[in-house]
Amino acid sequence: MTPLLQVRDVAKFYGGRRGCEDVSFDLWPGEVMGIVGESGSGKSTLLASLSGQMAPDRGAVIYDTRDRGPVDVRAMSEPERRMLMRTDWALVHQNPRDGLRMGVSAGGNVGERLMAVGARHYGDIRARAVDWLGRVEIAADRVDDRPTAFSGGMQQRLQIARNLVTGPRLVFMDEPTGGLDVSVQARLLDLLRGLVREMGLSAVIVTHDLAVVRLLADRLMVMKEGRVIEAGLTDQVLDDPQHGYTQLLVSSVLQV
Amino acid sequence: MSISGKMKPGAGMTEYNFAYLDEQTKRMIRRAILKALAIPGYQVPFASREMPMPYGWGTGGVQVTAACLVPEDRLKVIDQGADDTTNAVSIRKFFEKTAGVATTEETARASLIQTRHRIPETPLTGDQVLVYQVPIPEPLRFLEPRETETRKMHSLEEYGLMHVKLYEDISRHGAISTAYAYPVKVEGRYVMDPSPIPKFDNPKLSDCPAIQLFGAGREQRIYALPPYTKVVSLDFEDHPFEASKADQDCALCGSATSYLDEVIVDDAGGRMFVCSDTDYCRARRAAGHVGAQGVPHEEAGA
Q1: Secondary structure of B22-80 in the HEC alphabet?
Q2: Are B237 and A120 in contact (CB < 8 Å)?
Q3: Do B236 and A120 count as a contact with CB atoms less than 8 A apart?
Q4: Residue B187 pLDDT more than 50?
Q5: Measured between CB atoms, does A122 come within 8 Å of chain B?
Q6: H or E segment at B4?
Q7: Planar angle of CA A57, A62, A68, nearest 5 degrees
Q8: DSSP string of A193-215?
């Protein structure tokens, strides 16, 4: 079996300042990788470098494409990369406003990816949009409402539906539960876990919330100052942290 | 050709070069036009000049017309199909004064037609040029505000977003309600804004023997359709494009096939529908056609 995503020695610098450096890992089909760390530790830089939003300064991001096998994403032509980003990949932003078109109805938001890959039958597009809204627990009668009329949690679920409608294989999530209250967070996590398992998705999830990775991630990387300081199975890292910083991180979580 | 870049003091037309613009500017605009014709539907940037009229009054169209005019031309200017509205009259006078070319109101006799928001009803021929005034040349503008992004979308042919707009129309109104500036795809490549012509006119864009030039002055873009270019209006398989018009006949000439303007005639809700193309309507009445509220041509004294 080939890994879905092979990350080799990725580095990104902002001038002389390090964004992230020496990051290497393999992501296998159906696996969820969590990346945790404090603010400014380079998690988001890493995610942007992997997901094609930013070009890394060094290293390789090799994706196992459906038709051509493993290809370095950096060596792809731009049309190819953008095509990949709207079919096989999905990107869930922390702020749903970054990932949604706020002036377009929920159905249009979900349908956009379908239309971008050539769907031209209104009835079919709408049926799939309604189906996906159902899967993320948004009532079918909200299909013509704009996201501005939705609560934060609904907006986030709409963003997930919009991303998953083309049946991607790899999802990048940047703080998917940020800014949501705990009960909404719990439902969203439950939903995400269900979708990831059901669709056999691979995912890279960046978060500062250890509860999120505990629930979703199979493996975990802990970052500090742009470097990976500890990596391993989620339960192993969280229950038996080896690095001093990971111990601090785990012990900082409030027990209720 | 007798046109010179220099002004001729003492001659009849001393204040301006022929057709107002200097020859260097015309040359620059012609180069943009040639490029636009070579890449149908592609928006070519050009260094739009200040014109002696406000933006939105057809500065783009006027510059394209000025660059195309030769002294032998016969010019027709229409605004919403009419020859006698402010915009049409002032631009026609402008070129009468600055170029001294002959003008006409008859579509068939004109060699160059500048238009705002309509394509004449009379079919155009191969020796005519149609110049459109364009307010917003970018069809994706109201969906994607970033110019860098829309350029990239054009270059990579990412036009899914255009269908999102049509999707929104159907989901909100049950049908594609976009009635003017209806987006088209040119030769299977570029998506183009046909300027705010009613979608009734969209089929006339395709396979037209005349050269069609589009000038946007404020946005500094020129694009073009060479003769016999294939132009397709975007639609959905289950909601096909429909060239719609008011479901009436012209009250003056009785035409059932021309595009109609709705005119409010009193304060009691009275209205009449008349051809928006005044030349077409006049010609029909002269040929003896009379609509429901019209009077025979001779009695009208025209």
Answers
A1: CHHHHHHHHHHHHHHHHCCCCCEECCCCCCCCCCCCCHHHHHHHHHHCCCCCEEEEEEC
A2: yes
A3: yes
A4: yes
A5: yes
A6: none
A7: 135
A8: HHHHHHHT-EEEEEES-HHHHHH
Give chain B's end-to-end CA distance (angstroms, integer): 38
Tokens of residue A190, six digits: 């439950």
**Which residues in B lie closer than 8 A to residue A117 (C-beta atoms)?**
160
- Nearest chain B residue to A105 by CA distance is B168
How many CB atoms neighbour CB A82 within 10 A?
17
Rg (CA), chain B: 20
B237 touches chain A (CB under 8 A): yes
Closest CA to B162 of B143, B149, B147, B178: B143
Which string of DSSP letters, residue by residue, matches A4-29?
SEEEEEEEEEETTEEEEEEEEEEE-T
pLDDT digits (tens, 9 = 90+) for B261-293: 999 999 999 999 999 999 999 999 999 999 988
**For A158-212, what is each residue's pLDDT tens digit?**
999 999 999 999 999 998 888 788 888 888 888 888 888 888 899 999 998 888 8
Residues 6+ apart with CB under 8 A from A100: A109, A147, A155, A158, A159, A162
Residue length of chain A: 256
Residue B56 predicted with pLDDT over 80:
yes
> Chain B window 238-277: which residues touch A at a Cβ cutoff of 8 Å?
238-239
Structure token pair of residue B282: 């006049």
Closest by Cα among B207, B43, B47 to B132: B43
SS3 A147: helix
Contacts 24+ apart (CB under 8 A), A228-237: A228/A22, A228/A23, A228/A25, A231/A25, A234/A34
Which helix (H) or strand (E) covers residue A65, if one does?
strand A58-65
Q: Give the CA count within 13 Å in the CB-facing half-sphere of B224.
A: 24
What are the structure tokens assigned to B76, written together?
């027709």
HEC profile of B191-215: EECCCCCEHHHHHHHCCCCCEEEEE
| B281 is known as an active-site residue | yes
E-strand stretches of B117-257: 129-133, 184-186, 190-192, 211-216, 221-225, 231-233
Residue B300 has pLDDT above 70, yes or no: no
The ipTM (two decimal places) reads 0.85
* Cβ–Cβ contact A162 with B under 8 A: no
pTM, two decimals, is 0.85
- Among B217, B190, B186, which residue's Cα sits nearest to residue B202? B186
Spatial distance between the Cα atoms of A190 and A138, rounded to a whole number of angstroms: 15
Q: Cβ separation of B171 and A144 shorter than 8 Å?
A: yes
- From the list B156, B171, B238, the residue facing A107 with the nearest CB is B171
Give the pLDDT of residue A38.
86
Contact A121 B168 (CB under 8 A): no
Distance CA B131, CA B62 (A): 8
Both tokens assigned to A141: 């009668």
pLDDT exceeds 70 at position B71: yes
**Interchain contact A111–B (C-beta under 8 A):** yes
Do residue B156 and residue A79 have CB atoms under 8 angstroms apart?
yes
Are the beta carbons of B124 and B71 closer than 8 angstroms?
Answer: no
